[in-house]
Structure formats: structure tokens, C-alpha cells
Specification:
heterodimer; A: mainly alpha; 8 helices; disordered C terminus; B: 408 residues; Fusion Protein Consisting Of Minor Coat Protein, Glycine Rich Linker, Tola, And A His Tag, Chain: A, Domain 2; 14 helices; disordered N terminus; Protein TolQ (chain A); Cell envelope integrity protein TolA (chain B)
């Protein structure tokens, strides 16, 4: 019978309005952060798979023109494919206009950098929200606790005799806010670190791929420099 | 080959970044629901670990008034202190020691009487007068009863012996009373009357004295009756003398002890009450067997036996109440071990708490309040319904004594 009055739902229901609002905010934050966690996890895993597939097909010896043609122009791709598409499109456009290899390579590099930074933006999307929840929710919960204890002491001053038994439920219900804040913050911190690490590793792979692709183009240009002059 | 690879690439989900939000939302909500359910299921079991009742000691004082309680305590303690083992053996099991020779009994009784009188002489004047009168009354009543039983059994020799014993005892006490020369008129009159009336008037005198000191008389009378019952039964088995003798001796010593204890009582009352509580509980078990025996044998002893049985049942109920209250009691942090408060609790017919009030305050209001809160938390005591109706009525109002003590 004592457990009933001290159970968590009972404590939450009997808390003051401000504390309840804080708890609601924390619950919403926690749910949203978990949504982000799941969404980002799935997205990053798929991006990684896709990168692996693309890398395999890229290094399988297929002709780059063929590879490029297989990607529909009106269907924007992501990841390394996007970088490859942007770089190769720029290469194809510049080739007829200039014979200067440095200019071509510079344009290709710039367009690939743009594509890479768009990819970065895509991959790290919403991760900032996780960081925000991770850093802010303990403070929000602490605020709820402080507010609840404040209220408990105010009402305690009204009573004639204050024992531990009269203070304890108040403090317990106030502390729930802190507990919820930590409950929201801890997974957010862990998954923020994990997901941002995954994203940065993937971005590093994209960068490596861009460099390698750049090297291939450079090699091709060296070869073509002779060809056009010959023809 | 390369084409196949490329085909798989194009077949893969178009936008790996644009993962739908419905699945993550469902997963996130599921995670939260799982956690909430887990906490709801786990919470009661994790928080329900029982408090160790070792910190707390709540003792039941009595179902009766306090003066009765104090007397009971002193009597029992006295009986315990000076070799009460023979008495208890005689009470619980059929007295093993065979009938001792009669002269021994007489000599012992004489010694006991002398010792009692000597002790009384040392006591204060007023207390001594009363106590000695009580001793006299007891001895006379005992002698009278023994004689009456002997007559019933047509054992004239024992009657004579009992008379002789009573006379010798009375003479010794009367002489000493004369020597003390305090409040002599009353005591001398009593002694003379006793000597004159001898066995026939002994009962009348005892009654007259019983009126004077009713509280103490009641206790002693009950014991005397119980003893009488045991005596008669023992006579039937030709073993009554041993039991009666042991009883008489213990009684005399108990009285002596009680007189001495009356002086000590004020100094160590709290401790003694706690001890006596334990002793009474231990004794209750022994008395239960005795009560059953007595009920079969003696119609006279029925009242006493009923009282003992009621006490036993009450004790078991009281133990339940005590344990419940102990567990619910949160001692305020500043309370010292010397504090003790007595609560008067009134219970409804089904064991619900009607009222809990402070009978004797400890002087610390927080301590008193914690005790009341403990009782309120522990209520209701549904075990009350399991008891017989007449005992229920007795237990509707009980007194609990709260003392923060050591591990029991």
C-alpha cells in the first residue's frame, strides 16, 4: 500500500504543473532523439552499403563513360556516386571547351568538393539535434527538480511540524525530473558520438574516393594531351 | 557483369539519406513504452524490500491499567529472580519431585515466614505494615485452603499439620509485629483475631484484608486459587505436598522480593518492564499448558485459566500488531534511546484503527508523532477478527510502548 503512493506514475501525476511540463518536454525530447537515432542509424547503414556497392562496381574495371551513362541525369544520387557524377559531368563539360588540363582538373575538383560538402550536410543531418538533447536535457531536468523542491519547501513552511515523511514524496517527485533528463541525455550522447563517428568515417571514404577519381582523371588527361595533339 | 552490378546499384533504394520517418518513430515510441512498462513492473518489487525491524522496538505494555502492569511485572520478575525454576517446573509439567517429608515442609515454611518477616522489618514503616499484613493474609488463606482440601479428602492429619503450620507462622509474625511497635493496634488486633479464630475465621479475615488492598489481593488471590487447584490435583496423586511447598516457598520469596523490588522499581522501571515483557511472553507459553490442566481439574480455577488463555491469545495478536508497528516505525533521527512513549490504541471490530493517542508522552513531540504515524501506517490489524469474540472486546483497546532499542 505504501508502494502505491511512491510509485513513479503516482509521483508524476501529483507533481506540480511546471514540473509536469518539464517532464513532458523531456519525454518529447527523448522520443525525438530516439527517432533521430533510429533514422540516422538506418540511413548511415544504407549509405555505407551503397558506397561499398558503388566502390566495387567502380573498381571492377568498367568504363567510366558507361558507368556515368548508367546513372540517369535527372535522378540525383548520393554518396560517392554523387561525387563521381558531379566530377565526371564537370569533366565532360569542360573537355570540349578547354585544352588546359589544369583548368579541367580544377573545375572537376571544385565540383566534387561541392558535391562532397552536400553529402556531408546530408549525412550529419539532425545529428545536431541529438547533441542538443544530450547537452540540454540534464539541465532541463535539473530545472524541474529545483522547481519541485522549491515548491515542496514552500508548502513545507506552511505546516507546523516537518518530518522526513512529509518531505520525502515531494523530493522524490522532483527528482524524477532529473532522472528523466538523464534518461533522455544518456542515449543521445552515446548515439551522437557513435553516429557522428560513422558519418565522419563515411565522409572520409568519400574524400578518398574523390581523390582517387581525381587521380584517374588526371591520368586520363595526361594520356589525352598526347592524343588531341596527335590528331 | 559490370552491367549487372550497375543494375543492382540502381535497384537499391533511391535515396539512402531520405529514410522514412515512420519506422524510426514507431521504434522510438516502442522503446519508450518498453522502458515505461519495464519500470512499472519492476518498481514495486525493487522498492518492496522489507525494512529491517531491528532498529525499532515497540513493546506492548498491557491491555489493562498501568498499576496492574507494574505489579505483574514486579511479581513475575521476583518469581524469576529467586529460584523460580522449581515453581515453573511444578506448574508446567506434573511435579516430578516426590512428596517431601512433612516436617521439612513445615520447617521450610517457618523459615520462609521468618525471612519474610525479617525483610519486612527492614522495610519502611508503612510499606512494611501493608506488606506484612498481606503476607499474613496469604499464609492464613493458604493454610485454610490446605485444611479445607484435606477435609474434603478426609485426610485429617494434613489438616492438623496445616493448622500447626498456620499457627506457627501466625505466631511468629504476630510476635515480630508486636516487636516493631508501629501501627500496632491494628496489626495486633488482626493477629489476635487470627489466633482466636484459627482455621474457621481465617477466610473472613483474609476477605477483610482483601478489601483493604484490593489490587494486590486480586493478583495474589488468583495465584492462590491456581495453587489450590494444583494442590488438590496433586493430593489426588499423592504429590501435592511437593508442589504446594514449592509454590508456597516461591510465594513467600516472591513477596519478599516484591517488597524489595518496590524500592528499586522507580530507579530501573523502564528496563525492568522490558525484561518483564519478555518474561511474560515466555511464561505465557508455559501457563497455557497449566491453564488447560487447571480447567479440567478445578471449577474454582476456571476464571484464572480463562484469563491466562485470553492472555495467550492476546499475546499472539499483540505480537502481530507489534511486528507490524515496528516495521512501519520511522524513528526520528534525533531520538535518543532513552525516550519512550506509550500509545493508547482503539481498534474497531474488524481491526481498523479508530483512534491512536499518546497515553504517556516521551517529552519529544516528534518522537510521539512518529509513533502515532507508525500505528496509522500499520493499521488495519485484520488478525483481530480471527480471535474469539470476548477476547476481541478485551483487545479493542491496547497500549503500546515505544522505545528505540537495540536488536532484539
Amino acid at each position: 500500500m505504501n508502494d502505491n503512493t511512491m510509485s513513479i506514475p503516482h509521483l508524476i501525476m501529483s507533481a506540480s504543473v511546471v514540473v509536469q511540463l518539464v517532464m513532458l518536454l523531456l519525454v518529447v525530447g527523448s522520443i525525438l532523439s530516439w527517432v533521430v537515432i533510429f533514422q540516422r542509424s538506418i540511413a548511415l547503414r544504407r549509405a555505407k552499403q551503397e558506397y561499398n556497392q558503388f566502390e566495387e562496381s567502380f573498381w571492377s574495371g568498367v568504363d567510366l563513360n558507361e558507368l556515368y551513362r548508367e546513372i540517369p541525369a535527372d535522378d540525383p544520387r548520393h554518396g560517392a556516386e554523387h561525387i563521381f557524377q558531379a566530377g565526371f559531368r564537370e569533366f565532360n563539360r569542360l573537355m570540349p571547351k578547354t585544352r588546359n588540363a589544369d583548368t579541367v582538373l580544377e573545375g572537376v575538383q571544385r565540383s566534387m568538393r561541392v558535391a562532397w560538402s552536400r553529402e556531408e550536410d546530408r549525412l550529419t543531418q539532425h545529428l545536431v539535434f541529438l547533441a542538443t538533447v544530450a547537452s540540454a536535457s540534464p539541465y532541463i531536468g535539473l530545472f524541474g527538480t529545483v522547481w519541485g523542491i522549491m515548491g515542496s519547501f514552500q508548502s513545507l513552511s506552511m505546516t507546523q511540524q516537518a518530518t522526513l515523511a512529509t518531505v520525502a514524496p515531494w523530493i522524490a517527485e522532483a527528482l524524477i525530473a532529473t532522472a528523466m533528463g538523464l534518461f533522455a541525455a544518456i542515449p543521445a550522447v552515446i548515439f551522437y558520438n557513435r553516429l557522428s563517428n560513422n558519418a565522419s568515417r563515411l565522409l572520409g571514404k568519400y574524400e578518398d574516393f574523390a581523390e582517387e577519381f581525381h587521380a584517374i582523371l588526371h591520368r586520363n588527361l595526361q594520356g589525352r594531351d598526347g592524343k588531341p595533339s596527335a590528331s | 557483369m559490370g552491367k549487372d552490378k550497375a543494375q543492382t546499384v540502381t535497384d537499391a533504394p533511391r535515396d539512402p539519406q531520405d529514410v522514412g520517418y515512420t519506422l524510426p518513430i514507431i521504434l522510438a515510441v516502442a522503446v519508450h513504452l518498453a522502458i515505461i512498462i519495464f519500470s512499472l513492473i519492476n518498481w514495486p518489487t525493487s522498492s518492496a524490500e522489507p525494512d529491517s525491524s531491528s532498529i525499532v522496538q515497540a513493546t506492548l505494555v498491557s491491555t489493562e491499567t498501568f498499576t496492574d502492569q507494574a505489579q505483574q511485572v514486579t511479581e513475575q520478575q521476583a518469581a524469576m529472580n529467586n529460584n523460580a525454576e522449581p515453581v515453573e517446573e511444578a506448574q508446567t509439567s506434573e511435579p516430578e519431585p516426590e512428596a517431601e517429608p512433612e516436617p521439612d515442609n513445615q520447617a521450610q515454611q517457618q523459615q520462609a515466614a521468618e525471612e519474610a518477616a525479617r525483610q519486612a522489618a527492614q522495610a519502611e514503616a508503612e510499606a512494611l505494615a501493608e506488606a506484612q499484613a498481606a503476607a499474613e493474609a496469604d499464609a492464613q488463606r493458604r493454610a485454610e485452603e490446605a485444611e479445607r482440601q484435606a477435609q474434603e479428602q478426609a485426610a485429617q492429619a494434613q489438616a492438623r499439620e496445616a493448622e500447626a503450620e498456620a499457627q506457627r507462622q501466625r505466631e511468629a509474625e504476630a510476635q515480630r509485629a508486636r516487636e516493631q511497635a508501629e501501627a500496632q493496634a491494628q496489626r495486633e488486633a488482626e493477629a489476635q483475631r487470627a489466633r482466636e479464630q484459627a482455621e474457621a475465621d481465617a477466610r473472613r479475615e483474609a476477605e477483610a484484608k482483601a478489601q483493604r488492598e484490593r489490587e494486590a489481593e486480586e493478583q495474589r488471590q488468583r495465584e492462590a486459587e491456581a495453587e489450590a487447584a494444583r494442590q488438590r490435583e496433586a493430593e489426588a496423586k499423592a504429590r501435592e505436598e511437593a508442589a504446594a511447598e514449592a509454590r508456597r516457598e516461591a510465594e513467600a520469596e516472591a513477596q519478599r522480593e516484591r517488597e524489595a523490588a518496590a524500592q528499586r522499581e522507580r530507579e530501573a522501571e523502564a528496563e525492568r518492564q522490558r525484561e518483564a515483557e519478555a518474561e511474560r511472553q515466555r511464561k505465557a507459553a508455559a501457563e497455557a499448558a497449566e491453564a488447560a490442566m487447571q480447567r479440567q481439574l478445578a471449577g474454582e480455577a476456571e476464571a484464572a485459566a480463562n484469563a491466562q488463555q485470553a492472555q495467550q491469545a492476546a499475546n499472539s495478536f499483540i505480537n502481530i500488531v507489534r511486528r507490524a508497528v515496528e516495521q512501519a516505525w520511522l524513528i526520528p533521527p534525533g531520538a535518543s534511546d532513552s525516550l519512550s512513549a506509550t500509545l493508547q490504541i482503539r481498534l474497531g471490530p474488524s481491526g481498523e484503527l479508530l483512534a491512536a493517542s499518546i497515553a504517556t508522552s516521551s517529552g519529544d513531540s516528534a518522537f510521539d508523532r512518529s509513533a502515532i504515524q507508525a500505528v496509522e501506517q500499520a493499521a488495519p490489524f485484520g488478525e483481530l477478527r480471527d480471535l474469539p469474540a470476548d477476547q476481541q472486546r478485551n483487545l479493542r483497546q491496547i497500549n503500546l510502548r515505544f522505545t528505540p532499542g537495540d536488536v532484539r
